[in-house]
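Technical annex, item 7. During the second reporting period the consortium partners agreed on a shared format for inverse folding records so that results from different sites could be compared directly. Each record opens with the tokenized structure and is followed by the designed sequence. A conforming record, contributed by the partner at site C, is shown below for reference.
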């Protein structure tokens, strides 16, 4: 069937094996495949239940499907699963997972327990092309986009690493990669994540972070009522050009105007991430400018302690400096929280564990 073979071609990453990953499929696509095999459409929901609720890793395990159909599925598809290459556990309970994909690429996910919630930080790409100066992942460059099944495979892998009684409550796309640069696959992953036939996760528990790919922000929020986080990190174009080069394409004014124009901007808070770099973006003037810049928005600022990594040209701002910065934002009527550095003892800065475990490949170019 032409439609089905096109679908397979689009969901199969050519770098991974021959069979397409059934975890890349949405319900309507699986229903077509089920009907094509001469089975009733409800079988597609049964398969989804096995994949996403029961975490089946083989078609043989799907005992309520006819044996011949299970064999056909097995002949045509694989169930993508991601192996944990390394798990580092911090004294603060943070667990950093180095996960190995089917083609040998490594990516990172992080389980972050805080009071009353356990958040999973998810990667959307292997590496990243955005080149942010304070980011260990940027040193890798972009290796490739992740397929939807690989994005979601991180949830399944993380579930294996949870402590007894612990459940994932929140999901942030703040791991390796720029999610909006991989939009078609992010869209597919979010569809499966939020659907009742998929993982059934409320979009309110999902945050997508972007360094500022302006044209895709609107599209994301039109498609899913998720939370948006914008990595701002600077209050002048001069500094932002240097530490987040996407600013050369979408300067601060363009980015902030786009945020103001988002239909959700009047109803919901947009979070602005701001990594505190000593002597770079942490002055009193920066704090005042930031308060002024964000005043027209329903904004929340996350001040982030920089987690330094080897060869990083930046140092973290002092505790006093971060506290003082926050106080100025508060005086400007902005909600501002300080995100404590987590997992410092396990290389939890984005891309850092990868760099440590793949040192020759990740050496600065
Ligand atoms: S901070 Fe995010 S967008 Fe920037 S290089 Fe790192 S992973 Fe990419």
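Designed sequence (site C submission):
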């Amino acid at each position: 069937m032409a439609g089905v073979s096109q679908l397979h071609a689009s969901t199969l990453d050519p770098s991974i094996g021959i069979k397409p990953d059934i975890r890349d499929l949405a319900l309507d696509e699986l229903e077509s495949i089920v009907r094509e095999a001469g089975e009733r459409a409800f079988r597609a929901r049964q398969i989804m239940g096995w994949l996403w609720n029961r975490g089946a890793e083989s078609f043989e395990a799907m005992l309520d499907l006819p044996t011949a159909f299970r064999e056909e599925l097995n002949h045509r598809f694989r169930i993508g699963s991601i192996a944990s290459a390394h798990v580092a556990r911090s004294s603060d309970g943070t667990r950093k997972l180095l996960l190995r994909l089917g083609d040998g690429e490594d990516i990172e996910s992080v389980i972050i327990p805080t009071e009353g919630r356990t958040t999973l930080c998810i990667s959307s790409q292997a590496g990243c092309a955005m080149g942010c100066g304070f980011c260990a992942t940027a040193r890798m460059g972009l290796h490739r986009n992740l397929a939807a099944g690989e994005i979601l495979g991180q949830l399944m892998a993380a579930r294996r690493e949870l402590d007894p009684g612990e459940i994932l409550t929140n999901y942030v796309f703040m791991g390796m990669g720029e999610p909006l640069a991989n939009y078609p696959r992010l869209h597919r992953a979010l569809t499966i994540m939020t659907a009742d036939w998929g993982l059934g996760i409320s979009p309110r528990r999902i945050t997508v972070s972007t360094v500022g790919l302006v044209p895709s922000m609107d599209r994301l929020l039109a498609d899913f009522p998720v939370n948006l986080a914008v990595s701002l990190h600077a209050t002048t174009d001069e500094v932002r050009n240097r530490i987040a080069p996407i600013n050369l394409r979408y300067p601060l004014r363009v980015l902030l105007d786009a945020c103001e124009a988002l239909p959700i901007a009047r109803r919901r808070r947009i979070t602005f991430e701001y990594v505190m770099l000593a002597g770079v973006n942490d002055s009193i003037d920066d704090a005042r400018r930031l308060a002024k810049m964000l005043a027209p928005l329903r904004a929340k600022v996350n001040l982030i302690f920089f987690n330094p990594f080897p060869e990083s040209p930046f140092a973290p701002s002092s505790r006093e400096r971060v506290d003082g910065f926050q106080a100025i934002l508060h005086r400007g009527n902005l909600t501002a929280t300080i995100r404590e550095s987590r997992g410092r003892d396990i290389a939890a800065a984005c891309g850092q564990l990868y760099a440590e475990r793949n040192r020759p490949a990740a050496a600065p170019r």
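Residues 128, 130-132, 135, 137-138, 176-178, 211, 350 surround iron/sulfur cluster (CB under 6 Å). The chain has two domains: 2-76, 83-362. All partners now use this format for quarterly exchanges.
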